[in-house]
Amino acid sequence: MASQSPPETAQDDPRGDEEQDRSALTRYQPPSLAESMHASLPRWSGAAAAGLGLLVAAAVVAVTDLHVAVAVVAGAVVGIAAFVVASRAVEGERAATDRFVTALVTVAFVVAVLPLVSVVWTTVSRGLPRLDAAYLTQSMYGIIGEGGGAYHAIMGTLIVTGIATLISVPIGTMTAIYLVEYGGDNRLSKVVTFLVDVMTGIPSIVAGLFSLALFTLVFGPGLRLGIMGSIALSVLMIPIVVRAVEEMLRIVPARLRESSYALGVPKWRTIVKVVLPTAASGIASGVVLAVARVAGETAPLLVTVGIASSTNLNPFENRMAVLPVFAYYQIKFPGIPPQAFIDRAWTGALLLIILVMTLNVAARVLARALAPKTR
Amino acid sequence: MTTTTPALTGGRRRPGDRVFSGTATASAVLILLVLAGVGLFLLAEAYPALTAPADRISGGEGMVVYLWPILFGTLITAIIAMLLAVPVAVGIALFISHYAPRRLSQTLGYVVDLLAAVPSIVYGFWGVQVFAISLVPLYQWLAENLGWIPLFAGPASATGRTILTVSLVLAVMILPIISALSREVFLQTPRLHEEAAMALGATRWEMIKYAVIPYGRSGVISASMLGLGRALGETMAVTLVLSASGGVTFNLLSSGNPATIAAEIALNFPEATGLRLSELIAAGLVLFLLTFLVNFAARALVTRQKGGST
């Protein structure tokens, strides 16, 4: 059975394609004897198809008054069609399908990256103007128009996220230890594993409502405290920590534990002194990633912490400002002049991105620095 | 004497052991309690609204009439976002794992991971200040030329802050998440399967179709479900972008849009007291149950797939 369709020679291929991909085919070099066994489009054909697509898009924009997005779609369709038709003529059916998918996947990638680049670029370009000393050192106390800063909100974010980390890491780590070292295959660990999965899917605002409902039941309605925000964030953070630590503990080799038991070391000391240090790098980076994941959460803090314009460093008393909620209020309810508020909001967003990115990079560095020296 | 395997229990049970295993078990049980607490406390706080007479609920026609439009808005935005994002995300994942040059692919993967971590409120800012405005001409074109499709009936909103914009923003948001997870599964395809396919003369697409996708299918499903969960519960981006005016409609371009549950809560919460607060918490309870169901279904699907394919 021939795995390749009969090789088609270069002479056949321009038929019917002239209007589609003239540039690619008029300059087509007949392949050498060895190559003609597997006739294929030249390496630059992909670039040529992309160029054709861009040309078509540009022509549509220039000639008609259609929207840019429509033109881009038209260009992509023409480019891909030309590429596939050319490939089908030269290389045969199966190769053409392959080319088609390659083109689709590449276009999908480019299309998806554009908005993501736009998000980052907009935030950086609009956030930088107000990223000054005043923004980092002043609160909004007594500010009505321009000026002011987010010092109070930055401190609030650090405090609320810090407390959430202090709550989540011990609980998450101990749960993971239970699942890996003690639970085995019993019913409790199966249920917990399942529920941890469900917990990762809890919408963040529901976590906020939970914390609020809890405090309302205990202390009465109308309360807004930093600690309520920390508890809401913990609900989101614990499952992430459990997952990360569990994964790390499972890859600690069993022979390390067995050697320790053989020396008569109790189980708990084995876990503390052998298992945890071996997994330390992964645990540290998992925890940092979990912090990064919740540091930018807005909705749960909006309903639990509220907003304040002056600095409040006590999480157990009164409302607090946190960076995401602060930025939200600045952009959603701007005062006069509005631009001052919008600028402050974008700078807040930029700081959030910087915070999250730094934590992500830190996680990588930690994972490398603390990696066990086994060999 | 005990019959448990002595090698793995580490000899005698010492006091330290008992304390440590007790703490570990307590943490695991605490997670059960927290999750039960989420349901119970929300129910307790929502109870006044659920039992109140219909005319005292916002809109004056009871909880069901109040909840239906926002539930509809939540579902339609999340589902459109999923339909748009999943094919593209799988494309990105395949591009990074199997098409991009090897040196480039690691960097790209890292960048996608970073984008998955961008806080949702940033997407909201971008959506309302950049994206929605740039979509207005497109919406006008769609309403004029494709208006015979009920989805694009128009008249197009002048601000661009419509259901379709929200769905697009949500799609952009969940893209990195779905593609990061899918890429991870695609990369785990056994090397031997891929090489065997290539050795049989398969093209790259045939190799992906017969070796990579069957292996990664359950992973992609669970990644998509995670993305759906995110889209259902996403609050800030929707709150910022959508200009909601109530009403159930499939018209994606006009300025008459249903809100979503999460956005309804976030918008009205700061001023809500008493029964209004209860209503919002009841809406939160519905959202919780909805995401619970989605997660449950995802888990069940994945388990069945795994059982079948081995």
What does this entry look like structurally?
- The complex is a heterodimer of chains A (375) and B (310).
- By secondary structure, chain A is mostly helical.
- Chain A folds into two domains: 22-128, no CATH class; 135-369, MetI-like fold (Orthogonal Bundle).
- In chain A, 71% of the residues lie in helices and 0% in strands.
- Chain A has 15 helices and no strands.
- Chain A has helices spanning 22-26, 33-36, 45-63, 68-91, 93-127, 133-137, 151-183, 187-200, 204-219, 226-250, 254-262, 267-295, 299-304, 323-332, 338-369.
- In chain A, helix 4 runs antiparallel to helix 5 (93-127) and helix 14 (323-332) runs antiparallel to helix 15.
- Chain A is flat.
- The two termini of chain A are 51 Å apart.
- Chain B folds into two domains: 13-52; 61-309, MetI-like fold (Orthogonal Bundle), CATH 1.10.3720.10.
- Chain B has helices spanning 6-9, 15-51, 62-99, 102-116, 120-145, 163-187, 191-199, 204-233, 236-241, 261-268, 274-309.
- In chain B, helix 5 crosses helix 6 and helix 6 (163-187) packs across helix 8.
- Residues 1-11 of chain B have low confidence and may be disordered.
- Chain B has 310 residues and is an all-alpha fold.
- Chain B is flat.
- At the A-B interface, helix 5, helix 7, helix 8, helix 9 and helix 10 of A face helix 1, helix 2, helix 3, helix 4 and helix 5 of B.
Query: How far apart are the termini of chain A?
Result: 51 Å
Radius of gyration of chain B: 24 Å
What would CATH call the class of the largest domain in chain B? Mainly Alpha
What is the total domain count of chain A? 2
Assembly state here? Answer: heterodimer
CATH class of the largest domain in chain A: Mainly Alpha
Q: What helical percentage do the residues of chain B reach?
A: over 70%
**Total individual domains of chain B:** 2
